[in-house]
Amino acid sequence: MHQRKNKKILIYFFLLILVGSINNNSTNNLKFEKIKNISIFGLDENDQKIILYNLNNLGLKNIFFINKKNLQSIIESNSLVEEYNVIKKYPHSIDINIKKTNFIARINKNGKFFLLGNNGKLSNNDISNIQLPYIFGSPEISEVVKLKKIIDQSNIVYSQIESLLYFKSNRWDLKFTNNLLIKLPEKIDKETLDKISFFLENIELENKKILDARIKNQIIISNE
């Protein structure tokens, strides 16, 4: 009985070696086709060409052996990219689908205005046909994006904001297109903004230009 078991084990062992040798030879003979086509969707033609140029300089060989970090670095270096996914299409093509960021404001950096995207990246201020609020002061980009998200969650209409003024105390003022200035508290949330919105909808401001909401549970309106 013991000898039969040993014989079976030896037979299985030699079969494994044989199968392994066949697989190794097959693998060595495999030839993967080089990448022949990269398609980019979601960006303007010029931005597509820039990404394609940089990707071609990587010397991509085939779709099975791609340096993921290098690929990500090139795509994410474009300030217009907010989200993306890469689809490998056998045998030699790659599709890159990109979600283009929305611009949320114009911000001054070192004396020059830039377009700030919802992705937290800066782009050249070369688009004049969109109305965006200006940011004054020197906030962290992440703070601007955070404020925008809170406003979007509230009943405040972002498109009616003319400018956002940041103070070193980490506080914001909102200047609206109708010249109304709202002084916000240091801690801002959806509830606070909704209370301000409700107040504006139900109170006649007449010629009042300033709404001060810096003190908790209190709103003061004035001309100065």
Describe the secondary structure blueprint for this structure.
Elements: H1 2-29, E1 37-41, H2 45-56, H3 68-76, E2 81-89, E3 93-100, E4 103-109, E5 112-117, E6 122-124, E7 134-136, H4 141-153, E8 161-167, E9 171-176, E10 181-183, H5 190-202, E11 210-212, E12 220-222
Parallel strand pairs: 1-3, 4-7, 7-8, 10-11
Antiparallel strand pairs: 2-3, 4-5, 5-6, 8-9, 9-10, 11-12
Task: List the keywords.
single chain; alpha/beta; three-stranded mixed β-sheet; 5 helices; 224 residues; nine-stranded mixed β-sheet
Describe the protein in words.
The chain has helices spanning 2-29, 45-56, 68-76, 141-153, 190-202; strands at residues 37-41, 81-89, 93-100, 103-109, 112-117, 122-124, 134-136, 161-167, 171-176, 181-183, 210-212, 220-222. The protein is an alpha/beta fold and 224 residues long. The strands form 2 sheets. It has a 9-stranded mixed sheet with strand order 6-5-4-7-8-9-10-11-12, with helices on one face. Strands 1-3-2 form a 3-stranded mixed sheet, covered by helices on one side.
In what range is the share of β-strand residues? 25-35%
**Cα gyration radius (Å):** 29 Å
**Biggest sheet details:** 9 strands, mixed
Number of helical stretches of at least 4 residues: 5
| Count of beta strands | 12
Helix content: 25-40%
Pick out the low-confidence regions: 12-29
Q: What is the oligomeric state here?
A: single chain
Strand sequence of the main sheet, in spatial order? 6-5-4-7-8-9-10-11-12
Global geometry: elongated
* Distance linking N and C termini: 103 Å
Could you tell me the mean pLDDT? 86
